[in-house]
Amino acid sequence: MAVHKGVAAALFRPVRTRNAFEETVERLLQAIRLGVAAPGEKLPAERELAARLGVSRVTLRDAIRAIADAGYVESRRGRYGGTFVAVTLPSPPPRPAPGGDLEDVLTLRRILESGAAEAAAARALTRAERQHLTAALLDASGTATGDGEYRRRDSRLHLAIAEATASASLTTAVADVRSRVNELLDAIPLLAVNIEHSDAQHRSVVDAILAGDPAAARQAMDEHLDGTAALLRGFLCG
């Protein structure tokens, strides 16, 4: 049975953000979870799907590989090959701890962390503050092994950005929301392509802060948070 074309057109619409990989993962998982692409059904051909989503075939393949590794699709070779939705889908991820409502957390995080990046860029940072921020960026490199170690380094960078605002209250608030975000992130796979993308976005945020450009710092952080939000919605919203 083929994917229903009318409904698929609504889901497989062009990706509009700069987080092409993350949003492609979200769209594919949404189609599978909503039954637009049912278990055992074949997804549209790569060329067609990439054109519908407005992404490169490389980005599409990376997204398909990510959800294949998570058990949502499988690739088959041969004349009748292609990408098929798994006959048995993975069990729903564990529910986050109380207080971990997804949209509540994402809204609060965007307000706090984008504001923190903007505020940090608006300050005349001391030499020590600039060094601390640069060191945190280097430490947050995706070369870390293991989910837990990467999450810790990533968290330290986001806290270093908050610290650069010189607001203890804001830093505490960012630490609290980051704890809630990590509860959600622990329920989804850690994707190599996303780590590479996050590393580049981290650099953009820190570069804008060090350059004293509040608008660019906010925009870069917004884009970074949008990518994480897309993955969380894709994997956690059933």
UniProtKB/TrEMBL annotation:
Pfam families from the UniProt entry: FCD, GntR
InterPro entries in alphabetical order: GntR_C, TF_FadR/GntR_C, Tscrpt_reg_HTH_GntR, WH-like_DNA-bd_sf, WH_DNA-bd_sf
Residue span(s) of domain HTH gntR-type: 18-88
This protein's UniProt keywords: DNA-binding, Transcription, Transcription regulation
Full protein name: FadR/GntR family transcriptional regulator
Record organism: Actinophytocola glycyrrhizae
Lineage of source species: Bacteria, Bacillati, Actinomycetota, Actinomycetes, Pseudonocardiales
